[in-house]
C-alpha cells in the first residue's frame, strides 16, 4: 500500500533567518476506478482505504445501493510497470443483477462533480436517483453533543496533525459515539471513504447518524449524504446555496459554521434539541 506522507525539503524563511529543512507532506496520487474492467473515473486521493473510497463513490453516484451489489474489489497490475501492483488502479466487479453504469454519462458527471453543478436539474437528479429519504428519519441529536464533535474529529486526524494538509470526515451516532473517521487530500474522497466503511459494515442507509466534515458543505458533499441516507450533515465552514437547497428538498438537516457553542442550522432544525431557540414546529426552515 502506498504511503500517506512524504518528506520534501523546503527553505523556511522568517524575518530573522533562513533555514532549509525537511517537511512532512500529505501524499497525493491518482486512483483509477474501474467497473467490470471498464475505467469510469480517476480521482486524486491520499492512499489508504481505497476499497472504501471506491465503494462509497459508487454508492453516492447511484451505481450501487448496498454491499450485496458488489462481488469483488481488487487492485489491477499496471501495463507499464512490468506487472507490478502500484495500488493506483482498482477494479470493482458488480453482482450480475446490477447494471453497469453508462461510461459516457458517468465520466462527464464525475468530471464536473468536483467543480460544482447548479440548477434545478441537478437537485431533481439527486432526488430521483437516491434510494433513501433522509426526511423520513426520526433522528434527534443534542446540540451540546454536536458542538464537541469537531474537536473529536480533529483529535482523530493523525495525518493532518503531521501535515496540515488533509480533510477529515467522521460518522457519529446520536449519543456522540464516533463510528468511523477517514482523512484524504480531497474532501469528497474523505466522505466516500466513510460511506464505504458503512457499506462494508452493512450500515447503509446511514439512518440515525450525523456526518461531520472538516471543511465547507458543498453541493457535492450534501449529495453524498443524501445518497447514503444520512439525516444530518454538519460542517465547520460555510455551506453553498445549492447545498442548502438540496438539504431542504431532501429533508436533510444541514448545520454549518459549527465552531464551539455556535452553529448555523439551515434546514430541519427540529432534529437538534437543547440550547436556546429550539424551534417549536417540525421543520419551519424547510
From TrEMBL:
<dbReference type="GO" id="GO:0016783">
    <property type="term" value="F:sulfurtransferase activity"/>
</dbReference>
<dbReference type="GO" id="GO:0005737">
    <property type="term" value="C:cytoplasm"/>
</dbReference>
<comment type="function">
    <text>Required for formate dehydrogenase (FDH) activity. Acts as a sulfur carrier protein that transfers sulfur from IscS to the molybdenum cofactor prior to its insertion into FDH.</text>
</comment>
<keyword id="KW-0808">Transferase</keyword>
<keyword id="KW-0963">Cytoplasm</keyword>
<feature type="active site" description="Cysteine persulfide intermediate">
    <location>
        <position position="115"/>
    </location>
</feature>
<dbReference type="InterPro" id="IPR003786">
    <property type="entry name" value="FdhD"/>
</dbReference>
<keyword id="KW-0501">Molybdenum cofactor biosynthesis</keyword>
<dbReference type="InterPro" id="IPR016193">
    <property type="entry name" value="Cytidine_deaminase-like"/>
</dbReference>
<protein>
    <recommendedName>
        <fullName>Sulfur carrier protein FdhD</fullName>
    </recommendedName>
</protein>
<dbReference type="GO" id="GO:0006777">
    <property type="term" value="P:Mo-molybdopterin cofactor biosynthetic process"/>
</dbReference>
<dbReference type="GO" id="GO:0097163">
    <property type="term" value="F:sulfur carrier activity"/>
</dbReference>
<comment type="similarity">
    <text>Belongs to the FdhD family.</text>
</comment>
<dbReference type="Pfam" id="PF02634">
    <property type="entry name" value="FdhD-NarQ"/>
</dbReference>
